Amino acid sequence: MSLTSEQKAEIDALRANPNQTLRTVSDGMEKHLYSAIPVLDHGFVRVIDYMGDDAAICQAARVSYGKGTKSVQNDEGLIRYLMRHWHSTPFEMCEIKLHVKLPVFVARQWIRHRTANVNEYSARYSILDREFYIPAPEHINAQSVVNNQGRGDVLQGDEAKRVLEILKADSARCYDNYEAMISDDGQAGLARELARMNLPANIYTQWYWKVDLHNLLHFLRLRADAHAQYEIRVYADAICNVVADWVPAAYRAFEDYRMGAVTMSAQMMDCLRRMLKGETVEQENSGLSAREWREFQDMLST
């Protein structure tokens, strides 16, 4: 993990001078404030600020539903009810602001989650650091033969070595040329906003990312899933650990009703009913495509 000396000094100063507040705080989240959680080879996630806790979710729900919540015996029961029935607005009452350092190609996936506020490090104004994501050998994979957007088996031997050497050499060469173009030593120097176009997608960028809990959980459901690309999944996994400490009741409900649950189509439910009645159901008489049938079998085996 690469924190600058200025960032380290800022973290130390903030953690050394806590402020009193009348607002609700989450003891679990307080331990994460400002501390950087290492991700990949040079990346990190750190919590800059947050608002709300499990009680804030319940408070918002009771304002919304009034007497309708009187049958719920406790806050966790209410949170589980809200999660189970997809009542999302109470979860929007909690927010988190993260400082994330990540490779540009991961950022391009991440930014597709548009229900957040983002402010990214400006390569028009500042010079990017010479830091690139280079995968560990166990994460150098061939293309999957069954999934056009997935990975297959790990590359071995000389082929894996050749790929790693190309990644390292290309990254270094691109950055050398970037520095040469922007240099004003004996020349005017190319504008930074133009020179950046030569940098590879594995260079690291940074941003502040602020999002409410409802949309954060949607992000985590997709990006912490086993099918997500490894390089974004490790960031999601790190954030999952933070959320579990921040809003433990909400996170337990999220694990049960989102991460640990499956969604079946009407045709899949029909197949399941027929199976429970003792009927032999195969892909040919299921009404499902070959891919849907594989997904259905995965659900049952899981």
Automatic annotation (TrEMBL):
Please report the name of this protein according to its UniProt entry.
Flavin-dependent thymidylate synthase
The answer, when asked if Flavoprotein is one of the entry's keywords, is yes
Q: What do we know about how this protein assembles, alone or with others?
A: Homotetramer.
The protein's UniProt keywords, in alphabetical order, are: FAD, Flavoprotein, Methyltransferase, NADP, Nucleotide biosynthesis, Transferase
Details of cofactor binding:
Binds 4 FAD per tetramer. Each FAD binding site is formed by three monomers.
User: What is the primary gene name for this protein?
Assistant: thyX
Organism of this sequence: Shimia aestuarii
- One GO term of the biological process aspect: dTTP biosynthetic process
| Catalytic activity from the UniProt record | dUMP + (6R)-5,10-methylene-5,6,7,8-tetrahydrofolate + NADPH + H(+) = dTMP + (6S)-5,6,7,8-tetrahydrofolate + NADP(+)
